[in-house]
Design a protein that fits this description.
Chain lengths: ~325, ~350, ~400
Amino acid sequence: MFDFEVLVQQLITGLSNGMIIALIAIGYTMVYGIIELINFAHGDVFMLGAFFALTLMGVLGMESWGPGGQAVGVAAMLVGSALFCGALNWSLDRVAYRALRRSSKLALLVSAIGCSFICMNLGLFWGGLPMDVFAGGVAAAAPKDFPALVPQVNLLGESFIRITPADALVFAVTIPLMVALTLMVNRTNLGRAMRAVAQDPVAASLMGIPVDRVIGATFFIGGALGGFASVVYSLYNNTIGFQMGTRAGLDAFTAAVLGGIGSLPGAVLGGLTIGCVRAMSDQYLETRWTNTIVFCILVLILIFRPSGILGSSRKEKV
Amino acid sequence: MRWRPGPIVTILAIAAVVPLVDLVLPAELALSEAVRTVFLYAILALGLNVMTGYAGMLNLGIAAFMAIGAYAFGILSCEIYPFQLGFWPALALTIPIGALAGFILGAPTLGLRGDYLAIVTLGFGEIVQDILKNLDSITKGMQGINPLPAPSIGGAMWTSNDERSWYYLLLALLTLTVIAARNLERSRLGRAWFSIREDELASRSMGIRVERAKMIAFATGAAIAAFAGGLSASVLSSTGEPNNYDFQVSILALCIIIVGGIGGVAGVLVGSLVMVGLNSIVLAKATAWMAAHGIGSQGNVMLSPNNWKFLIFGLALVIAVRIKPTGILPPKLERGRV
Amino acid sequence: MNATRTAILTLILIPCVGLLGSHSASAQGTLKIVSSLPRTGSANAQTSTIVNGIKMAIDEVGGKVDGWTIAYQDMDDASPQRGNWDPAVEAQNANTAAKDEEVVAYIGTFNSGAAKVAIPILNRAGLVMVSPANTYPGLTKPGKGEANEPMVYRPSGKINYFRVVPTDDLQGVQAANWAKDLGIHKVFILHDRELYGEGIADVFKKQAESLGIEVVGFEGIDSKAANYRSTVTKIKALNPDLVYFGGTTQSNAGQIAKDLRSGGFKGKYMVPDGCFEQAFIDAAGAGNLNDNTFITFGGLPPEKLTGRGAQFCSAYRTKYSADPEAYAAYGYECARVILQAMARAKTKDRAGVLEAIAATKDFDGVLARWSFDANGDTSSTVMSGQTVHGGKFEFVKILGD
C-alpha cells in the first residue's frame, strides 16, 4: 500500500527533525573546522540551553501570558539560550581547551569528553531545582515537560497531513540563522579571520589575527547556534531531559560528517538527509532497524565520497 | 648492569599481591573484586591501543568488538546452543572471530581519513548493538545468553564466587596480552605502525605497505577486544544485554589509553587503574561509605553523593589531560608527542 | 617538573583507599540488609522512592529486631560511565554482599537483566534476595522464559530469590483483557526493546490476538529518540483505536503520548506499571493523558489501600511530605517482609532468614494479603486499572473482576 499523504507527512516530519539536527551539526562543524576537535560537550551545552530556556519560562511565568506575550517569550528564550550557550561554550574553550592547543588532538578530545560529563551532571542538578516547571524538582532525573508555547495544532484543519506552528517555527528560526551565518563567514572580517585560522593558525597569527580570540568567537557562535537549536528542539518535542544531549550530539555529529565536516551547507544537507532517512525507515521498514540504516548509509556514502557529500577532498578545512 | 623492573613489571607485581592485602582488610574494603574489572578494561584498552595508539586510527566503537567477542563466546559455549565447546576452546575462538569482524569492518573503510574513520567505527558500535537486539532468534535479544561456563584446569572449576582463582587467571591472561602487545610493539610491524601514525605519506614512500599494516592493526585490536569481551562474559556468566556494550564503554576505553599515555603498554595499565579504579573503587566505596554514615540520603538531588559521579569523572578527565596532556606514563620513545 | 606533575596527578586521581574513612568495627549483634539499585543516572528518580520505602520500614522497627541492630546499606549498581545499571558493578555488589558475613538479605535489583547476574552469585552464598521491581517471568517461573530458566539461577538447587511484584505474564494478560472490555478492536503495540517492555508487550500481543483484537502493528522503538512523529504517522494511517506501549517513563512513554496527541491520534493509550508514577504525568503533560490513558498496575493504588496500606500511605506522607509512589510501596514491602522474617527466624544467620522468608504466609502487606509461592513469587495477583483525570491517577477498577 502506497499512500501519498503518508509520504508527504513523513517528508515534513523528516525535514523538521533534520533542520534541528542541522542546527546542532553546524556547531560541531564550525569548531571542527577551526581546531579539528570533535567537541563532545556540544550536545550537552545544547541540553543545558534547553534547561535554561525552561527556567526562564518558569521564572517569568510565560505560560500565563497571552498569545502575543508568548511570542515575545519565545523570542526571549531564543536570545537568552543563545547567549547562555554561547557564553558556556566560550568558557569551556577558555578553561578546558585553550591550554591544550599545542597538545595532541586526542588530549583535547578527552578534555571535551570530560566537559560533556560535567555538563550532563549539571543538567541533572538543574532538573532538581524546586520549581513548578521542573515538577517541583522531586524526580530530578526524570524527563521534564516543556510546555507547548507554540501550539501543536494543525494549520490545515482536519486533514491527514498536519503542519503545525511548531513545524513552522523550526523553519522560521533555522533558515534565517543559516543564511546569516553563511553571510557572516563569507563577508565579514570575523568570518575571514575564522577561515584564515582554519587554514593555517600560525600564518594567521603572523598576519596579525588574534588567533585565540577568533577561536573563542567560533566557540561562542557555535554554542549560540546550539542554544537556538535547544529552544527550537524543546518547543518542537516538548520534553527535555539531562541525557538528551548525548543522542542529539551523536545525530548531529553524524550529520556533520555525512555532509562533509567543516562545510556549513554540508552540515545542513547531512541533517536533512538523516532526518528524512529516519522518517522513511520508520514508515516503510521497521523502527528498530532505523539506526542501523542511517549508519549503513553513512558508511556507503563515505566509501564513495570519503570526505562526505559536500566535503572537499583536497582542502582539509573550511 | 643490574636489572631494574620497569613500570609494567612493577604494576603487574603489585596487582599480584592485592588479594593477599585483602586478607587483612575488612570485607567492605576488599579490592580484588573491583580490580578484576580493571583487568578486563585493561585488556580491552590494550586492544584499542593497537589501533589508536600504535597505528593512529581513532576508534570510537571498540565496544562493538567486545560485544562480538562476548556473544561469540556465549553462542559457542552456552548449554542452550548446539556447540557447547567449553571455556578454553570458546575463549580461544573469540580471537579469530574478533579479527574477522575487524577485517570486515576495516576492509572498506581504512582508506578514510582520521575522523571519518572515527565516525564509521562509532556507527559500527551502534549497529552491532542493534543487530544483537534485533536478531533475537539467534542472540536472545535483550535476554542475554546465560549461563556461561567458568574455566576449569585439571577438573577444578572456577565459579564467580571463587574469587582468588579468578583473580589470578585474569591477571595471567592480562600478562599474556601485555607480552603480546610488547612483542608487537618491538616487531617490524610495530615499527611500521609507528611510522604510519607519524606520517602516512612518508611511510608509503619508504616502502611500507600502509593498507596492509593498517588492516593488521585493526584486526589485531579487534581480536584483543573480542578476547576481553569473551572473558568478561565468562566472569559474569552472562553476555548481559546488548546495551552493556554501548558508546559509553568505547569512550571509557579511549579515556583509559589517553589519560594513561597513549601508545605504551605501561600507560594503558596505569590508565585502567586510574579511570576504572576511580569509578569502581574510589567513587563506589566513597559513596557507599557516605551512605552508610547517613550523608545525603534524601531530599535534594545535590545532597546524594551518587549524583556527583558524572561530575567527578568528568573533572578527573579534564584535570588529567590538563596536567599531563601526554598521559601519566607516556611511552619513552615518543615522550612529548603523540 | 615532570616528576612533580606525575606526583600531583597521582595524588589527585588515586586518593588512596585509606582516605575513605576508617572501618567502623561492627558491634556484636549487627545484621545488615543491603540494596543494589541503579542510583546514578536516569533511574535515580524511581530508585530513590524505593530506598525511601526501605528506610521507612527499618525506622518503623526502630532499627532493631530481637535486640539485633539492623544496618542498611544502599549500594549503587550503576556506574558513571554507563549512566545505567552495569553488569560488572552488579556482580561486584553481589560478591561484596556475599562475602560480608553480616549481610543477611539483599534487596534488588531494579532491572531484570541485573537480577540475572546477581541471583546465581547470591544463590551460591545462600543469601536471600528480594526484588521490589523485577517482573521478567523467567527469573522464577519454569516454562515462561528460556528452557533452562529458572534453574540456571539456582546453582545450589535451592531457591533464594523472591519478589513482591507480580510478573509481566500476569499483567500483560490483564491489560489485554481490559482493552477488550474497553471495546478495542484494533491495537498498535509499541515496546522499548528492553527486557521489561518487550516482554510485557509480547504477552499483551498474544492475549489480544486470542481475544480477537486485531493487532495492526508490533514495533520496537528507539527509547532515546527525540520524538516519535514518524511512527505516529504510521500508526495513524492504520487507524487503530488503542496504542499499547510496553515501556517505562524512562524509556520515553511520555514523549510517545505527546507525539500521539500532537500528531492528531484520537484513540486510547495504554501503558504498564513502569509508568505508574507521577513523573510519567509530569513528563507527558497532563493535557496529553487526561481521560484517554490507561495504566495497569500490580496491586492497588495508594488511595484504595486499607489497613496496613493506609497506614503506610499516611506515614509516608508525614515522613517525606510527598505522596507514596508504587515503587515506594514495593520497596517498603520488600524491607518489611525481610524484617518480619528476621524476627521469626530461629537463627539470625543467612540460612535462618532465608528459610523464614520462604515460609512467608498470609503476610499482611501494604498491597494485599499474600504469601510466597513455591517459585518465590508473590501469591498476590491483584491488578488494578488506572486512568488519568485532571492530571492525577484515578482508580478505575480491579482487573480480572
